[in-house]
Amino acid sequence: MLVPAALLVVAATACGSGDDSPPTKQNPVAPTAQAPVPALSDTQARAVITLYSKINNEANTDNNRRLLDTIEDGPTYAMSVSDYTEAEGLPAADRKPYKPWSYDAADAKLYIPRLSAGQHRWFAAALSDQKGEPPSRLGVFAEQPQHKRWELVSVVDLDSTEMPSVALDSGGYATAVPANGNKELAADADLLRAGVIDNFATGGTGKKVFTPTRASEQQVEVHDKAGTRYGNQGTTVFAGADNRYSDTYALKTTDGGALVLFSHTHTQTDAVAHPGLQINPGPSDRAWLHDVPRTSITFTFVCNDAATVPAKAAPSRLIGYTCARTDASGPPVASWSDRA
Questions:
Q1: In this structure, are residues 89 and 288 in contact, taking their beta carbons and an 8 Å threshold?
Q2: How far apart are CA 234 and CA 95, in angstroms?
Q3: Which of 331, 334, 325 is CA-nearest to residue 84?
Q4: pLDDT, tens digit (0-9, with 9 covering 90-100), for 10-64
Q5: Residue 296 and residue 272: Cα distance in Å, rounded?
Q6: 3-state SS class at 43
Q7: How far apart (Å, rounded) are the C-alpha atoms in residues 187 and 167?
Q8: Global pTM?
Q9: Would you say 56 and 150 are in contact if contact means Cβ atoms under 8 Å apart?
Q10: How far are the Cα atoms of 92, 97, 150, 201, 325 from residue 63, in angstroms, in the given order?
Q11: What is the DSSP letter of 92?
């Protein structure tokens, strides 16, 4: 059965009025849109952070991936699991004993956005792992409705303890804004991602997305140092890679711009310059490369990034990033290939 897209409500003609004028039509009354409401309360958000720290310590004690999966998702979970994998590749005697820690939930600076009905619920928090110390990380917790729980999906090491000036209303709540397709911002998340990858790939000479900051200069330094460490015996090339983690989060700032949190994936390929040379994997590579000499090695990195974007046409500021190696592979040298 086809259902009409809309119903036209017509007023009935009054009886016995003696008025021969045609009946008047009443316009349908549009439903009142619900005002955006906070994703959760301040108290609830701090409880989420506290629970995260508790479960995180329990999971990290014995590299419990299943338990960790109940409090982390997306790139953050992928990065944590890679830490587990790397540690498990070391001999037991070389593994550092785990030291429990926690985020200071009581003093965390919360950025809880007001969201419209149907929007994915999330909030950001400036976090410190030392009570009384200024925040050094910016995290995003998102609700996973299918599991009815909140999980940490992004966490970024900041290059400064000075927090972005997020706009807050009279109730202390933030405003979520689109990170892509937003014409009121000078750059969107896709352009920011391209700029970060360019910092690694070219040393920031390609896309002029960012004004110099400590975070962007660190990425350029990674490019510069890696590109010369083998001298004339090898090469290092960085490139963007398929990014599975496209979720972005953005909050309006007091200058009309936005704080944008996003993720990217890039590769680093080391290769020998000519036959007869080999690259010997280091201890931290053992989990993926098993101490087998290679002629080239491609490392994959998953990273979380944070940037502030102005409303006017001007460069953005990369304010922090965090990366973890999640894979490594490459062809063995000929002698090992023959042995295999």
A1: yes
A2: 30
A3: 325
A4: 333 333 444 454 555 555 555 556 788 999 999 999 999 999 999 999 999 999 9
A5: 6
A6: helix
A7: 19
A8: 0.86
A9: no
A10: 13, 12, 20, 33, 17
A11: G
